Prior knowledge:
Layout: E1 2-7, H1 16-30, E2 34-40, E3 46-47, E4 50-55, E5 57-60, E6 63-69, H2 73-82, E7 86-90, H3 95-106, E8 110-113, H4 118-122, H5 130-143, E9 146-149, H6 152-160, E10 166-168, H7 185-191, E11 197-202, E12 223-228, H8 234-240, E13 245-248, H9 252-261, E14 264-266, H10 276-283, E15 287-291, H11 296-299, E16 307-309, H12 314-326, H13 328-342, H14 347-361, H15 365-369
Helix pairs in contact: 1-14, 2-3, 10-13
Amino acid sequence: MRISVVTESFLPQVNGVSNSVRHVVEVLTRGGHQVQVIAPGPGPLEHHGVPVVRVRSVALPGYTTFPIGLPDRALEREMARFAPDVVHLASPIALGKVGQRAARRLGVPQVAVYQTDVVGFSKQYPFHADVPLSRWIGKIHRRAHRNLVPSAASAAQLADLGVSDVHRWGRGVRLDLFDPSRRDEALHAEWAPHGEALVGYVGRLAHEKQVHRLAELADVPGSRLVVVGDGPARPELERLLPGAVFTGMLGGTDLARAFATLDVFCHTGEAETFCQTVQEAQASGVAVVAPGVGGPVDLVEHGVSGMLHEPTRPASFRAHVAALVADPACRQQIAAAGRARVAGRTWDAVVGELVEHYDAVALRPAERVA
């Protein structure tokens, strides 16, 4: 099958959309499919032998390293030249809308993957864009031939926007990379020289992730906070958390080692459609505390494979983290259950599900000619 992937973000950017697309492209290629990636630039022009078409872009205010794709004739020209059976719209907002318009003109069906709750994120900022954003996103997804969502919460969000033909499609996790065996006791001793339990956040340091809530954990008895990642909120966090360890951006085995060396993983954001870092923490054998809203609700069985705090109760987040810090046996039990939950959720298995969705809507060569 021939698939054009139009994505709002791709390498060298590191985020949930970029990482998901990268894994999908790699698995599709190994499976013998022909893939084309269309992404905002600048960046590499190929990935694992797959051509990457770079289109015009502009930097997002406040995120100078995050380009937003602009209308570009190169997109439709290169898509037509590639002649895809299906177009995959990865978290369509700006470039995704352009890609959808091109696909419609070419008569190619689209599978739209809803991955980013931009409406929820926008509510963390003072520019009140939630209503027009909702209308824009609803319009894109109503025009797609099939919509994929990662969680029950995101399915409900699209349903509220009048979107039909919605199917659940989650994310894979690299079980070969994220594994309890990556735990590094020497690193643990370096980060916690007095034997504290390590409580860690991993992800983009941005206000829409509500990372300021990490301040609630700054003085949990018997713990030390570790912050893995980078972003525009980092300077503010460093002022709020002078006793925390800030590692900056990590990747590959360094990231896996950091995950596995934690004792408790915590997530702060309430607008996550999935929350991939929860899966990576579970695969790493680390007890998880996450918000009881959005994507984490599908990933964590409260009290069994993690803890879900109540965002509307300010003391709930800290209380769950403090309870796990104080109870190593409970941490181990929850970590083991979390690890069992993600067993089998490899990217190969998940992309296999994705191909079934492609098959359901794809145009075969004879149909294209007709």
